[in-house]
Amino acid sequence: MRMSLFGTSCALLLWSMAAGGQLAGTSEKVQTIATGRWDAGCPCNNTDKSDCCPPYSVEVVTRPGQVGATVLLRTKADGGKPVFEMSKDAHFLGMFPTRDSGGNLVLLWIGGPAYTVSVLHAKDGHVREVLSARTESMPEWLRCSAEEPTMLSARWEWKLEAGARVKRPTQAVVFRWRGDTYAESGRVAWDERFANVCAN
């Protein structure tokens, strides 16, 4: 079974810093902190697929007084009006698609001592969040098959080593793609995660 490991360095969406301005179609003042493009492909059953093959224009903004950031998705067909909006009370780090076309969109956030991973999935012209998970370190992604990749989230514990307390990852929490969502499927020993995850 083929396995590959990838993370935020793989297929990173183009994103750039931008000056503050007004939210499209409104008088609301926002600060744009990232922009990109997500080609969600055509994962729909409609005969005329024009209404569900975006691609989506992605914009991450902060509003006055907002803690965290808001993700806005738009399509040309909707005249620039947001078709999906999601806010997190955390600082936005970056985003990347799981494949060049037809995959999910991964967004990374950090707040306090932990990262938050969000995964967006598009189907039949609708977008929804199919995973929101916290992890103490940057998540790892394994592509074990042609399906969407499996995510590994580290679980850390304090250990006594040579008389000193050190914190080390001991387990990997496994999140697998289940056709239309991600679900936790178990835990494996951290040092054996690459050998065990794709074997099961």
Number of helices: 1
Distance between the first and last residues' Cα: 10 Å
> Strand count, sense and closure of the main sheet?
5 strands, antiparallel
Instruction: Give the low-pLDDT segments.
Output: 1-19
Percent helix range: under 10%
Mean pLDDT reading: 82
Radius of gyration of CA atoms, rounded to a whole number: 19 Å
SSE topology string: EEEEEEEEEEEEEEH
- Describe the global form: flat
Structural class: mainly beta
Question: What strand order characterises the main sheet?
Answer: 1-11-12-13-14
Number of domains: 1
The total strand number stands at: 14
Explain what this protein looks like in three dimensions:
The chain is mostly beta strands and 200 residues long. The protein has one domain. It is 2% helix and 53% strand. The protein contains 1 helix and 14 strands. The chain has one helix spanning 193-196, and strands at residues 4-6, 20-22, 29-38, 56-62, 69-74, 84-88, 91-97, 105-111, 114-123, 126-135, 140-143, 150-161, 164-177, 182-189. The chain has a 5-stranded antiparallel beta sheet. Mean pLDDT is 82; it is low at 1-19.
Question: Layout of helices and strands, plus pairs?
Answer:
Layout: E1 4-6, E2 20-22, E3 29-38, E4 56-62, E5 69-74, E6 84-88, E7 91-97, E8 105-111, E9 114-123, E10 126-135, E11 140-143, E12 150-161, E13 164-177, E14 182-189, H1 193-196
Antiparallel strand pairs: 1-11, 2-3, 3-4, 4-5, 5-6, 7-8, 8-9, 9-10, 11-12, 12-13, 13-14
